[in-house]
Design goal:
This protein has helices at about 15-20, 130-135, 165-170, 175-185, 190-200, 260, and strands spanning about 25-35, 45, 65-70, 85-90, 110-115, 150-160, 205-210, 230-235, 250-255, 270-275. It is α+β, with helices and mostly antiparallel strands. A ten-stranded antiparallel β-sheet has the order 5-4-3-2-6-1-7-8-9-10. Pfam families: DUF1963.
């Protein structure tokens, strides 16, 4: 759904001139369960695109990672920040933390981000049987999804989300939302302003680019080197029609330095997920 600032309550009027410039193009992703997808097609879950000479990604214990998402850029609407061709893959671990190392969220051991600039559309030149890989996973493997999903892309736009660590400074000129709460003269800041804003300017859902959603805090807020990182991919809990659940109704995000994205360098991506 398209975001329109005119839908915000009157109390937000003094801040619209600060919110409007935060508008960004995003690519929304609608998922549909689908068992019949080519190896090179965009998907969430399922078997990855993998040339014959590529080793399937594993963690430090030799456990195979699992394909969370695969984006074939030729299938999605053009977006100025993203490549126009190639396949980008996100693999995560099947342990209790889905491969996330909270001590080093850029350590691509329990997760992996791979990019293939040239795409082979010949199945004979691609790995096709992943049964041995799947059998190698522990019997108690844990993943935030099951099944395979086709992706329908939609180019849209988004304004800065409440979850984004820079919201308070950009919109209210304070360090934290709690600092503005101390200045607020109304009865309940959250009920009067924050909740209505989050309903109109939602950051929930699956998307490429734009502003993130968190159930907890933005991990970039306390790490200076990440504060220019932008959202690369977000896969949200989606359990109404699909089987995607990060812990207790959480969300998974991947972030990247804009310079690295421009250079198609995905070696320093930052991975995060949180839940209620």
């Amino acid at each position: 759904m398209e975001q329109t600032l005119t839908q915000l309550p009157e109390i937000w009027q003094p801040f619209l001139d600060k919110i409007a410039p935060t508008k960004k193009d995003i690519v929304l992703m609608a998922l549909t369960q689908c068992d019949d997808l080519a190896l090179w097609q965009s998907k969430v879950g399922g078997d990855p695109y993998m040339p014959l000479d590529v080793k399937f990604p594993e963690d430090q214990n030799g456990q195979p990672l699992a394909l969370l998402a695969q984006i074939n850029f030729a299938e999605m609407p053009a977006h100025a920040d993203f490549p126009t061709q190639g396949i980008l893959q996100f693999f995560i671990g099947s342990d209790d933390l889905y491969g996330l190392d909270f001590d080093d969220q850029q350590r691509q051991d329990g997760f992996r981000v791979l990019y293939y600039e040239q795409v082979i559309n010949d199945p004979a030149q691609l790995q096709q049987d992943f049964s041995a890989i799947n059998a190698k996973r522990h019997a108690d493997a844990s993943l935030p999804f099951s099944g395979q999903y086709a992706i329908q892309f939609e180019l849209n736009h988004q304004f800065i989300s409440i979850s984004d660590f820079s919201f308070a400074s950009k919109i209210f000129a304070v360090d934290q939302l709690y600092d503005f709460e101390a200045q607020y003269g109304g009865d309940d800041l959250w009920q009067d302003m924050i909740e209505p804003y989050s309903e109109v300017v939602s950051a929930n859902g699956h998307q490429l680019g734009g502003y993130p959603f968190f159930t907890q805090e933005d991990p970039r807020s306390d790490t200076p080197k990440w504060q220019n990182y932008q959202l690369l991919l977000q896969i949200d809990t989606d359990d109404a029609e699909n089987d995607i659940m990060w812990g207790d109704s959480g969300v998974g995000n991947f972030f990247i330095d804009p310079v690295d994205l421009k250079n198609k360098d995905f070696s320093k991506v930052m991975y995060n997920w949180d839940c209620y």
